[in-house]
Amino acid sequence: MSDANIVIIDTGCANVSSVRFAIERLGYDVTISRDPAVVLAADKLFLPGVGTATEAMKNLEERDLISLVRDVKQPLLGICLGMQLLGKSSQEGKAAVNCLGHVDADTTLMETGNLPLPHMGWNTVTPVNNHPLFKDIPENSYFYFVHSYAMPVGDYTIGQCDYDKPFSAAIQNGNYYGVQFHPERSSKVGAQLIKNFLEL
Predict the structure, then answer these.
(1) Contact 112, 163 (CB under 8 A)
(2) Class level of CATH domain 2-198
(3) Beta strand segments in 76-193, E
(4) Domain segments of the chain: what residues?
(5) pLDDT tens, position by position, 61-115
(6) Distance of alpha carbon 155 from alpha carbon 170, whole angstroms
(7) Which end of the chain, N or C, is less packed with Cβ atoms under 10 Å?
C-alpha cells in the first residue's frame, strides 16, 4: 500500500464507492470525508459528482465545503459533474448556477445535431500537448461518458472529445484538474489516468 494520503471529498451528491474501489485497486488507502482538517491534510483530492450543478452547489454550501474546495493547494481531480463545478457557472438546472470559478468557462447544454443526448457510452479523447495526466495511455483510447452538458474547448483544455462538436473532456488550471468522463468506469486506460493523477 502507498502511504500517500488520498481523500475523496464527501459532497453528498456522488456514488463514491466506484471511485474509491478504483483507487484502492491501485494500492492506495482512501478516506471519504468532508472534515476540513482531513481534506487539507490530503496529498491528493477527488471531487466526484452526479446529478445537477444546482443540487451539487447546494450540497457543498450546506456542508460548508465551498470555501474549503476553493482554497485547497494540493492537486484535486473533479470527475464528471465534479469537473463542471470547477467552472464559472452551469446552465444545468432550472436556472444558471454559479460554480467554484477555478476555470474560466461555463457549462452549457451540448449542441449535438442529430446525435442523441445524453452523450452516453465510449468515445475517444485527444490529449493536448502530451499532458502528463494522459501519460502511457495509447492514442485514440476510449473513455466512458454519461452527460448532456459540457465545457467548451479553451486554454484550460488538456483533453478534447468530439460529439458532433468538440468539447473539453479534461481540463486543468493550476492544481485543479477535471475529467468529464468516468475514469473509474473506463477500464485500463481509466485506471492509468487515475494512477497518473496520483503520481503527479
Answers:
(1) yes
(2) alpha beta
(3) 76-80, 89-90, 97-98, 106-109, 119-124, 126-127, 142-147, 149-150, 157-163, 165-173, 176-179
(4) 2-198
(5) 999 999 999 999 999 999 999 999 999 999 987 789 999 999 999 999 999 999 9
(6) 11
(7) N
Burial (CB < 10 A; 0-12, 13-18, 19+), residue 163, is buried
Q: Whole-prediction pTM value?
A: 0.97
Which residues, 6 or more positions from 29, have their beta carbon under 8 angstroms from its beta carbon?
A: 1, 2, 6
Q: Which residue has the cell 483533453?
A: 159
Coil vs helix vs strand at 190? helix
- Taking a C-beta distance cutoff of 8 angstroms, is the pair 11, 65 a contact? yes
Whether 80 is a known active-site residue: answer: yes
Active site residue 131: no
Told to judge if 102 belongs to the known catalytic residues of this protein, a careful annotator would answer no
Sequence letter at residue 38:
V
Interval 140-177: pLDDT, tens? 999 999 999 999 999 999 999 999 999 999 999 999 99
